[in-house]
Design brief:
Length: about 190
Amino acid sequence: MAVEDIGAQRVGNGNPGIGKQQADAGRCLECHGADGNSIDAKTPNHAGQYAAYLAKQLSDFQSGARKHEIMTIMAEDLSAADKADIGAYFASRKIMQGEGGDVNQSGRNLFANGDRSRDIPACSGCHGENGKGGIAGDVVYPVIGGQRKVYLRSQLVSWNLGERKNSPGGVMNTIAKSLSDEEIEALADYVSGL
Ligand code: HEC
Ligand code: HEC
C-alpha cells in the first residue's frame, strides 16, 4: 500500500482543521498536547493515531464501555462529527515515535513471537512490526509503538485484570490475561521505544 493511502486511512473522513479548533475549545490539547504528544506519562499520545480508533474510544467512554473518570466527562458532549474531526486532527500529526535506546530483549521477543505454549500471539501480528497499527475490515489495531510507557503498562494491567474490556471480541483481555507483571513491564518498555 502506498504511503499516501496509509495516511488517508489514518485520517479517515473527518476534517482536521475543524478538529483542531474543536480539540482546542474542548481543552483536549491541554492534556494530549497541541501536536498530540501528551504532557504527562499517564496520558496517551494521539499523534498519528488512527482517527477511527480515537473515535471508537470516545464512543466507548460515552457509552460506558470504557471507564475513566476524566475522559467520561471530556467525551460527554461530543457529536459523531466532533469525534471524526478531532480524530482526524490528531491522526494527521507527525506519528508518535519512541526514543529507542537499549532494547528490552524479553519485551522484543514476546512482541515479535508471542508464546505459543500459553496461547499468547505475537503483538506484531496485529499491531504491526513497528507497532504503528493497521486496519483490517472493521477492526482498527491502534498505534502502540512510541506510546507512553506508563500508559501502556496501565492499559495492559487493566486488560489483564479485566477492568478495561472494550476490545472487539475481548481479544486484548484474552491476550493479556496470562501476562506476568514482569512481562507487562518488559512489553511496555520495548513498545514505548519503537
Ligand atoms: C485533564 C486531562 C485530559 C483532558 C482535558 C482530556 N483527556 Fe483524553 N485522556 C486523558 C487520560 C489520563 C487518558 C487515559 C485514560 C485511561 O487511562 O484509560 C485519556 C484517554 C483518551 C483517549 C483514549 C486514547 C487511547 O489511546 O486509547 C482518547 C481518544 C482521548 N483521551 C481523547 C480526548 C479528547 C478528544 C479530549 C477533549 C474533548 C480529551 N481527551 C481531553 C486525559 C485527558
Ligand atoms: C489479534 C489481534 C491483536 C493482538 C495479537 C494484540 N492486540 Fe493489542 N489490540 C488489538 C485491538 C483490536 C485493540 C483495540 C481495542 C479497542 O478497540 O479498544 C488493541 C489495543 C491494545 C492496546 C491499547 C492501546 C491504547 O492506546 O489504549 C495495547 C496497549 C495493546 N493492544 C497491546 C498489545 C500487546 C502488548 C500485544 C502482545 C502481547 C497485543 N496488543 C496483541 C488487537 C490485538
